[in-house]
Design brief:
Elements: H1 14-49, H2 51-60, E1 64-68, E2 75-76, E3 82-94, H3 101-115, H4 119-126, E4 133-139, H5 141-150, E5 155-164, H6 172-175, E6 177-178, E7 184-185, H7 187-191, H8 193-197, E8 201-207, E9 213-216, E10 232-235, H9 239-255, E11 260-266, E12 273-279, H10 292-295, H11 298-301, H12 311-321, E13 329-332, E14 335-338, E15 341-344, E16 352-355, H13 356-361, H14 365-386, H15 417-422, H16 431-442, E17 446-448, E18 453-458, E19 461-464, E20 469-472, H17 476-493, E21 505-515, E22 518-532, E23 539-546, H18 558-572, H19 578-584
Parallel strand pairs: 2-10
Antiparallel strand pairs: 1-8, 2-3, 3-4, 3-5, 6-7, 8-9, 10-18, 11-12, 11-23, 13-16, 14-15, 17-20, 18-19, 21-22, 22-23
Helix pairs in contact: 3-4, 3-5, 9-18, 12-14, 12-17
Length: 585
């Protein structure tokens, strides 16, 4: 059987086979051409038709500079215990341009439920196409974490430093506080706000037109500056001593039924403030909840009539001017007329012939008014001014007032003021002014400027405070004689201020409380100011009790409180008894 050979047959004629690759190439070319035309048309639309719109959008989202808050400096006591430090809450803001219109309602509802704020108010903040809208500056950490976990579009949650006072009420008035605006107020926080705050940094940031975050954190980027942490401050105050003095003040206020009180402790040789106690006090962690009047530091921000403690100043002027000596005599008949006004002793008694020492020991108003007339208005007010009354002490705490002194020539001054001012009535001082004045007597006549910050440190460097002698108020001789008078005032006039084994110089004060039209017949300000050891003073202390009710006299309230504080100081400062110190020499 013959087989016919099979021949492969091409279904396309030869000319068709040649055209096939050409068609495919043409299709590819057409595709590229169409794509190029499309790109060109889009580019033309951007550059011509929508040019102004793109310029406005790109301009709007250019990076802006964001401030980076520096850590605030710490505040430490003289032994390194932390009195003020930093923690953090959260600050909430929004980028409205990242929130779609359909998302605004949902986001505002969620935030309203978490923050407890009206939904419509939040929805208004989320409207528009801006890149930043503040919502709430200080949000508790727990609330901030809830918002973070909610992962809401366009909502920015960032940590925000907050000030914390771990000792709560301890030295509260001295510390002051930092408010929600990151500014320090009152005390050390207010006075040293710029030093503690440091220097803020800056960085470029923003959102691009496609709602993508842009952050130029490279230090080489323009506008970048590194935040500088604030200085840390070391105080002259010792935490333990401060606590013990505060407890003694609280006990005294309660023991004597007083309305309030304060105690100031200062080193008279340097001006360093060792303790500053006020009662009632407050917790600076919760300053916003406190009556604003309680925020004022009574030691430097409130004035009072010092009463008989001011007799120290009058006698100091007389001794320095040479118009009186310790043994000079005065015949006390129980009253004296000065400027047409009759002045009497506190007990309305007459003491007959007395010395200048007796005037101080017995706290005779008539005798000290007589001394002021020996000085005369010009010299008397000269010494009042030299002792710092009527002007600020210059202490490094915010909120100090200057006190009130009417001088000869003032419209409201009267000739009788010379007599009443001599025993601390009719003029006003701050407790710190009184301590600084008596500190000058303890320091051989040299007045030191009080200070509470011992050292400022930053980045391994530290600067110590300078001890500043303001002026020599009285001569060393006058200071020595007056010290002996004040020792006698404690030994014979205020025995409750004595501490066994130590020689103390001091003076009591009982001042009437000013009211409209005169003075309250019952309420007083009881005080005692003194220093020890008398021959080599390590501290000067003022105790002031406002309106005590168990007794109105400084001799029976403030004097024993001084003794208790002195015992604390002798122990904490390791001051040996007088006999032991004499034996050691």
């Amino acid at each position: 059987m013959n087989q016919v050979p099979v021949t492969a047959i091409d279904p396309l004629p030869p000319d068709e086979r040649d055209r096939k690759p050409v068609r495919r190439l043409a299709i590819v070319r057409a595709g590229f051409t169409a794509f190029a035309l499309l790109v060109a048309m889009q580019f033309l639309r951007w550059m011509v038709v929508e040019r102004d719109s793109w310029i406005e959008k790109l301009t709007r989202v250019q990076p802006y500079q964001e401030e980076i808050a520096p850590p605030r400096g710490l505040i430490l006591d003289r032994k390194g215990a932390v009195l003020a430090l930093n923690n953090y809450d959260y600050t909430i803001s929004a980028a409205p341009n990242r929130i779609g219109r359909e998302e605004t309602l949902e986001v505002s509802n969620r935030l309203a439920a978490i923050l407890g704020r009206p939904r419509d108010e939040l929805a208004e903040l989320l409207k528009g196409d801006g890149f930043y809208s503040p919502i709430e500056r200080h949000v508790p950490r727990q609330v901030g974490k809830i918002i973070i976990s909610a992962d809401l579009p366009g909502i920015i949650v960032r940590p925000l430093a907050v000030r914390v006072y771990p000792e709560h009420t301890l030295a509260a008035h001295t510390m002051g506080f930092v408010a929600g605006d990151d500014k320090g107020y009152y005390g050390v926080e207010g006075f040293y706000d710029k030093v503690l705050k440091g220097k803020a940094g800056l960085r470029d940031t923003g959102w691009n037109p496609w709602d993508q975050p842009v952050s130029f954190t490279d230090r080489r980027s323009r506008g970048w500056t590194v935040p500088q942490q604030g200085h840390s401050l070391v105080l002259t105050i010792d935490r333990t001593l401060q606590y013990l003095v505060e407890q003694e003040l609280k006990d005294a206020v309660e023991r004597y039924g007083a309305e309030s009180g304060c105690i100031v402790v200062m080193d008279p040789k340097t001006g360093a403030l060792l303790a500053l106690a006020s009662y009632p006090s407050y917790d600076p962690n919760r300053f916003a909840e406190i009556d604003k009047e309680l925020l004022i530091d009574p030691v430097i921000g409130r004035q009072y009539e010092p009463g008989s403690t001011f007799k120290i100043v009058t006698m100091a002027g007389a001794l320095d001017a040479g118009v009186a000596e310790a043994v000079d005599l005065y015949n006390d008949v129980g009253y004296i007329e000065v400027g047409g006004r009759i002045l009497r002793n506190w007990d309305e008694r007459a003491y007959g012939t007395v010395t200048m020492i007796d005037i101080v020991v017995r706290s005779l108003n008539t005798g000290i008014a007589h001394v002021s007339t020996l000085l005369g208005p010009s010299r008397f007010y000269h010494y009042v001014s030299r002792f710092g009354f009527g002007r600020k002490t210059g202490v490094d705490m915010q909120g100090e007032v200057s006190g009130t002194v009417r001088q000869q020539g003032d419209l409201e001054w009267h000739e009788s003021d010379l007599g009443t001012n001599a025993f601390g009535q009719g003029l006003a001082a701050t407790p710190l002014q009184m301590v600084v004045a008596v500190g000058a007597v303890a320091n051989r006549g040299f007045m030191m400027r009080p200070y509470v910050v011992e050292q400022a440190a930053q980045g391994g460097r530290s600067v110590s405070a300078k001890q500043v002698a303001i002026r020599q108020v009285i001569s060393e001789r006058a200071a020595r004689i007056l010290t002996e008078m004040m020792i006698e005032a404690v030994e014979r006039g205020a025995p409750l201020a004595k501490v066994a084994g130590y020689c103390i110089a001091g003076k009591t004060g009982t001042a009437q409380t000013p009211v409209v039209g005169g003075y309250d017949p019952q309420l007083t300000v009881a005080s005692f100011v003194g220093f020890a050891p008398a021959d080599d003073p390590r501290f000067v202390v003022l105790v002031k009790l406002d309106k005590p009710t168990t007794s109105s006299w400084g001799t029976t309230t403030a004097a024993p409180t001084f003794a208790n504080v002195a015992r604390i100081l002798f122990s904490q400062l390791a001051i040996p008894p007088d006999q032991a110190r004499v034996a050691a020499n």
